[in-house]
Structure formats: structure tokens, C-alpha cells
Design brief:
This protein is mainly beta. The protein has helices at residues 6-14, 113-123, and strands spanning 23-27, 30-38, 43-44, 51-54, 66-74, 78-86, 90-98, 106-112, 138-141, 144-151, 154-162, 177-187. The chain has one domain (6-187): Jelly Rolls (Sandwich), CATH 2.60.120.680. Helix content is 11%, strand content 45%. The termini are far apart.
Length: 190
């Protein structure tokens, strides 16, 4: 596993491509990255238990559709991120469900590129107030979080968070959280 320096991570995030990621896909008008994020700015491999991704699906508008269906283990003090770039307006739909409800709790954030940089700074212990895209984010989840929302074009990070950042500064548990993630990013017809 390669560890990245803070400078390396910030430089990579600045270009929306994080080195050390577990997967990078480029398709017509879309780019996405998945990685585990932790304090210190390191990217590590996320545990894969099941994965089903469809990169060949096309929306009714002809644009690419991203489907992520997987189970991930998010250690305490870390987050799991799926980064993507939308070339036009997209509909983001997700469901994140704890495999053992009520054990730990987690947060689901949808960040713009700049918000994600602030989140990473907060993980590194810098006092930064993170403000995720409110309509798409859910805090203090014990069982299941689901949302469908429209996002403008731009770079985004979908994060399942197991840190005190979304919990009002109080650690909920020192245990890892295992969640099932179902995420779809689809171009809008408008």
C-alpha cells in the first residue's frame, strides 16, 4: 500500500484525480475515482466484498451512467470516497445501509471539489468547518440513508464518513463500519 504525503494528496485532489486510488475509470464525459481516506491525508485500499459496476450503460440522453453497488468497510477515523466529474447536470441517487444497524453510525456527504479539500483538511486536524452539499448529505445515520438530488456540472466526492466530523465532534465508536452502497450518477435529459 502506498502512502501519500499531504502535499501529494492535495495536489491530486486539485486535479480531481487522486493517486493511490483503487480504481480510475474514464468514459465519455465522466471521470471517477474510489479511495479510502484517513487522517494524515493517506489514501488506502478499501476492502472489497462485492462489486458490481456498469460503465457501459447509457442514459436516455445517451450520456454515461455510473452504477456502484458494493460493500465497504470504513475504519474508525476514516472515510470512503467515490469521486466523479459531471460534464453536465446529473441526477445522483444513493442508498447506504449499515450491515449491522445501530452499532456505530455514519455520515454520508456529497462534496464539491473545494468542500472535499476542506473535509480532507479537517481529517488532518485543521479546524475547518466542512459544509457538504446539504440537499444530498445525511448526518448521524444509524441504519439507512437514501437521497436523490440534482447536481450541476463539476467535480464531486461522495463520502461515507466514520469520523467525528459529521457527529458534532463526538466520536460515536472506535469500531469500523461496514456498509452496503448503491450509487447511481445519471445525466439529466434537460
Amino acid at each position: 500500500m502506498a502512502e501519500l504525503s499531504r502535499r501529494g494528496v492535495l495536489a491530486a485532489v486539485g486535479s480531481t484525480v487522486v493517486s493511490g486510488c483503487t480504481q480510475l475509470r474514464r468514459r465519455a464525459g465522466e471521470q471517477s475515482v474510489e479511495n479510502q481516506i484517513s487522517a494524515g491525508g493517506a489514501s488506502t485500499r478499501s476492502e472489497r466484498r462485492s462489486t458490481s459496476e456498469s460503465g457501459d450503460a447509457r442514459s436516455e440522453t445517451g450520456g454515461p451512467v455510473t452504477n456502484v453497488d458494493r460493500t465497504v468497510r470504513v475504519p474508525s477515523g476514516q472515510g470512503w470516497a467515490h469521486q466523479f466529474t459531471a460534464e453536465s447536470r446529473v441526477t445522483l441517487s444513493y442508498t447506504v445501509e449499515a450491515t449491522k444497524p445501530g452499532k456505530n453510525g455514519f455520515d454520508v456527504f456529497v462534496f464539491t471539489k473545494n468542500e472535499y479539500t476542506d473535509y480532507q483538511r479537517a481529517l488532518n486536524g485543521r479546524l475547518v468547518d466542512t459544509h457538504p452539499t446539504a440537499a444530498a448529505s445525511v448526518r448521524n445515520v444509524e441504519e439507512t440513508a437514501s437521497r436523490t438530488c440534482t447536481l450541476s456540472s463539476g467535480a464531486y466526492a461522495f463520502v461515507v464518513d466514520n469520523t467525528p466530523i459529521g457527529d458534532g465532534g463526538k466520536p460515536r465508536s472506535k469500531r469500523p463500519e461496514t456498509v452496503d452502497i448503491s450509487l447511481t450518477v445519471r445525466p439529466r435529459p434537460d
